[in-house]
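Moderator note: this is an archived Q&A kept for reference. The question asked for a predicted structure of one protein chain; the sequence and the answer are reproduced below.
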Amino acid sequence: MSSTPGKPALTTKPSPPASVVTPSNEELATLTVDDIDVDFLPLIYDLIRSLDKERDNQDTTHKVQELKTKLSTARDQINKLPGITYNKQDQVKLQEALLKQLDMKKDLLLKYKNTFTF
């Protein structure tokens, strides 16, 4: 890109290190942390209440099965979260690359803001 006199040239954003795999837009759009249903307390409370009553063993078995199903669903959803496969080193490298990008963009904004306009 060409730059005009008095205005800084726009640069492209640096890519993260080659060893860091960034999630695709498809992965980011599929599932977020807010989409995961991890509200287990009501099920656990109902299970404890049914254990206290000790009248209906079938009811207790049904509540245990509900809790198992909900835990299994939450586990599957968590495994589908984007970035779950990153290890600590990859996360640190990606964070450093993103912080570097942020600093560069801040510097460019300051340069652009402080340039003299004709």
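Archived answer notes: Confidence is low (pLDDT under 50) at residues 1-23.
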